Amino acid sequence: MRATLVRLFVVLIAFTAAGRGLSEEDNKEAKEDTDPIPDLLNAETFDSTLATGYHVVEFFSPYCPHCMHFKPTWEQFYRDNHRSLESENNLFLNQVDCISSGELCDREGIRYFPNIRFYSAGGKLLGNMGTNYARTAEGLGTFCDDQLSLWSGDEEESGSNGKSRGISSVDVTSLIDKKQLVRMLSGEGITKPMLISFWPSSDKQLKQEQFQGDHKSVDFFKNYPRCYSFRNLWNGAIKGLSQQISKDDISLGYFNCGSNPTLCDSLDIRNWDSQDQDNVVPQIMMILPSKDGGNRIVFNQPDSLTIQDISTWTKRLLDIYKFEDVKRDDIKKKMGIVSTLKSEPGDIPDYSEVSFVLLEDPETHVPEDDHVLRQLLQPIMDMRENVYLYRSTDKAAFLKLLKDQEMALENNYVNGKLDKESPDRAKFSEEMFAARTLSTLPMVICIKSNSLITPVLKSFSPRDTRNPTKVLNFIRENVSPVARPLTPRTMRTVFPHRLDATVADKSEKVLIALMDFKKPKDLPDVGYAISYIYHKFTYLKWKNQFSKLEKERNAKYSKVADLKEKDADYSDIMKTMSTKIPGVFEGMDNDLKIAYMDIERFEYFKERLGWGNIIPDSYKGGDFIVFSRFGNTFWDKDLNGEALNVGNSDSVVDVIAAASFAKLKGETISTPWFKMTLMTILAVVALVLGIRTIHKILRRRRLRANRVKGLGILGVDPDLQSSGLGKFE
Predict the structure, then answer these.
(1) Same domain for 611 and 681?
(2) Would you indicate the residue range of the signal peptide (predicted)?
C-alpha cells in the first residue's frame, strides 16, 4: 500500500512538472503569437510603410549563412525594443527578403547581406550599419541610438507632409572648380580653413543641385553606393561642426576629380579613378590659409569611417593649426590637466586627450621654431589618438605644474594606504626631478589628461627641439594615454604587428584590465586600480632609471679621480670628464601601456591576437593580465601564485616591476607555429616508429607460434624424434 502511494506521488510530481514545462513553452509561443515579427516589406509596401517616421530595415537572403546566424538576434531585439522605439522615437523595425523582392533590393542598391539601413520619412536613406557596429543586440541598439541622436528632431530633415525636403543645415557644401582650388592651394583667396571632399564624379554627374539628392534619383549615387553612404556621413559630420560653421571658422566644399584628373593625381587623391565603383570612397583634405603654400592637410581616414572620425579630426585641426601662444590655464580648460588625484575609487576619468607643448622663451624665438611646428602638423593629424600640439611662452606656470605633479605623485598618490611612518613611503626627490626635467628652452612637454606623469623632451641646445624628426619621435613615444579601451580599432595600436625600434622597445609591457560592464558598481574600483598601477609603476621605473644614472655618474667621477691620482695627461682627464652619460629618462625601456577590455569580448580578442594558451573562462571582471607587448609571455599570478585582480593592486605593480627589472619568468602566450610543426613531425615519426615496433613484435610472436605449433610437451615432434633434428630445425 505504501509503495503504491509513493508511486502515485512520483507520478503526480512528474505530471505537474511536465505541465509547468508545457505551460512555460505555451507562454513563450503565446508571447510570440501576441508579438509577432511584422510582415516582410516588398515592392508594393516598402514606399508606403516608409512614408512617415524613421525605419531600420534589414535586407537579407534566406540562403545567406550570416543572415541565418543573425536571425534570432534580430527577432529578439525586435521583441525587446520595438514598442519603446515606436512610442518614444517613432522608429520602426522592418525586413526585406531580397530573394522574393529582388527588384526592390536592386532599386535600393543592396550589394551584400545582411545589409542594415536607417531611413527617414519618405524612404530617404541616411545611414548604414557598418563594420564598426557589432552584429549583436547591443550593436543594433547602439546603431539606432547613434542615428536617432544624429537625425531626430531635425525639423528641416522631414516636412509635415512626411516627404524628405533635404537638410538645409548641411546645404553649406559648395562645388569647387579647378581655378578656385588652385588659388587656395597657392594661399590666395582663402581667409579661413576649407574642408574639401574629393569625389570620383564629373561636373555633369554630380552638380551642385544634385549633391544633396536621393540615392534613387541621382544616377551617380546608384552607381557608386559607398559615395552615397559617404555623403550621409559628410552631412552628419557637418551637423557636428555646426558651432564652428555658425562662427564662420570653416567653410566646406566638394571637388569633382572626374572633370579634373590631372589635378587630383598631382594631389595624390587615392583611387578616385578606380574601376571598382562599389568600393570607391571620396577623400578629405583641409586647406589652411597660408601665404607660404604647402597648406593642405590630408585626412588619413580609416576603412570603417564614422561621422565622429570626420568631425573630431576637423575640430582637432581647427584647434591647433594657428599655433597661437597659449597659457597653462587655456589648456587646462581644454583637457583634464591635474596637479592632484583622488586616493579613492570614483568615476572612470577621461584619459583620451594628450597634448604636447613647445615651451619657448620669447626673447630667443626665431621663425625656424614655427617652421618645425608646421612640419609636425600632418604627422600629428595622421595619428588616431586625440592628440594636440601647442606652443607657449608661459614657461613658469608649466614648470610649476611639473613640480606640483611630481610632488603629489611621490608624497601622496603612490603611497596608497602606507602608514605615514613607514620606511617604504615614497618621498619627493629634488635630484630625480631635476635629472628628469632640467632643460634649456625651447623644450617639449607631454601632458596627459587625468595623469600626474608628464614626460619631457629635454633640450641642451636649440638644435634639439628644432629637429622635426627628434620631436616627432618623442611625440610618437608618448602619445599613448594613461589607458584606453581595447577595441577592434585600437587592437593593433595596443599590440602592434611588429616592433618599431625608433619609438618603442622590446621590453615594453601591456596591462589588460578585464571589466564586467554588467556590474557597473565594480567599475570604479577597476578604474582607480588602473590609475594607481600606472602611476606607481612609472614612479618605480623613474627610480630605477635614476639609480642607473647615479651609477653611471659615480663610475665617471671615480674614473676621473683615478686619472688625477695617477697624474694622467690633462687631455685624458678632460676627455673622460666630457664623456656623455646616456639619457636614461629618454628611452622607452620597460614602458607600460594599459588597456581595459570588456570581458564579454575575451574570446574575440583571444582569436584575433593569438592568445592560444590563455583560457577566458578562468578570468572574471576585475582581473588583470600582464603581456609582453612584443614577446610571447604573459603573467596572471602574483609573486605568491595568486590571481592578479583589483583587490591587490600593489601585487600587480610588483609583478610588472619583477617582469621588467628582474626578468620574472612568465607563461607562454601561444606555441610558435614552427615549434608546433616540429612537435607534430616528431609526434608523427614517433607514432610511425611505434607502429612499426609493435608490428615487428607481433610478427615475431606469430612466427614463433607457427614454429612451435604441434610440438610435443618436450618441444620435439614425435615424428622427427628419430631424425636427430633440433627443436627449430
Answers:
(1) no
(2) 1-23
352: in domain:
yes
Residues 6+ apart with CB under 8 A from 153: none
Element counts in the chain: helices (H) and strands (E): 23, 19
Alpha-carbon span 643 to 646, nearest angstrom = 10
Question: CA 357 to CA 510: how far, in whole Å?
Answer: 26
8 Å CB contact between 579 and 572: no
Cross-strand partners of 510: 593, 627
Q: Does 88 reside within a domain?
A: yes
Task: Examine the fold and report which residue of 416, 448, 480 is the final residue of a domain before the chain moves on.
Answer: 480
pTM of the predicted model over 0.85? no
Residue with cell 508511486: 7
Name residue 429's amino acid: S
For residue 604, count CB atoms less than 10 angstroms from its CB and return exposed for 0-12, middle for 13-18, buried for 19 or more.
middle
The residue type found at 514 is L
Q: What pLDDT is attached to residue 33?
A: 57
Per-residue pLDDT of 423-442, as tens digits, reads: 878 888 899 998 888 888 89
Q: Answer yes or no: is pLDDT of 11 > 70.
A: no
- Gap between the Cα atoms of 421 and 411, Å rounded: 12
Domain with 112, as residue range(s), is 46-151
Our measurement of the distance from residue 711's CA atom to the centroid of its chain's CA atoms, rounded to an integer in Å, reads 81
Rounded mean pLDDT, 592-602: 94
Is residue 550 domain-shared with residue 655, that is, in the same domain? yes
Q: Are 284 and 196 in contact (CB under 8 A)?
A: yes
Alpha-carbon distance of 404 to 207, in angstroms, equals 58
Q: Are strands 443-448 and 353-359 parallel, antiparallel or unpaired?
A: antiparallel
Q: Do 306 and 327 belong to one domain?
A: no
Statement to judge: residues 391 and 448 lie in one domain: yes
Q: What is the domain count for the chain?
A: 6
pLDDT tens digits, 280-311: 999 999 999 986 666 899 999 888 888 889 99
Using alpha carbons, select from 465, 293, 514 the residue that is nearest to residue 364: 465
Q: Residues 535, 623: contact at Cβ < 8 Å?
A: no
Question: Grid cell 594636440 — which residue?
Answer: 388
What is each CA distance from 593 to 45, 339, 350, 479, 535, in whole angstroms?
54, 22, 16, 11, 12
Same domain for 331 and 278:
no
pLDDT averaged over every residue in the chain:
85
Within-domain flag for 476: yes
Question: What letters, b where the CB count within 10 A reaches 16 and e where it falls short, cover 116-127?
Answer: bbbbbbbbbbbb
Asked whether residue 73 is domain-assigned, the answer is yes
How many other C-beta atoms are found inside a 10 Å radius of the C-beta of residue 720?
Answer: 14
Kind plus residue range of the DSSP H or E element containing 180: helix 178-185
Residues 588 and 687 in one domain: no
For position 287, what pLDDT does the model report?
95
- Sequence-separated contacts (24+) of 561-566 with Cβ below 8 Å: none
pLDDT at 453: 92
Q: Which among 151, 186, 202 is the end of a domain?
A: 151
558 and 641, same domain (yes or no) = yes
Whether 320 contacts 388, CB under 8 Å: yes
Grid cell 674614473 is found at: 559
Whether residues 141 and 254 share a domain: the answer is: no
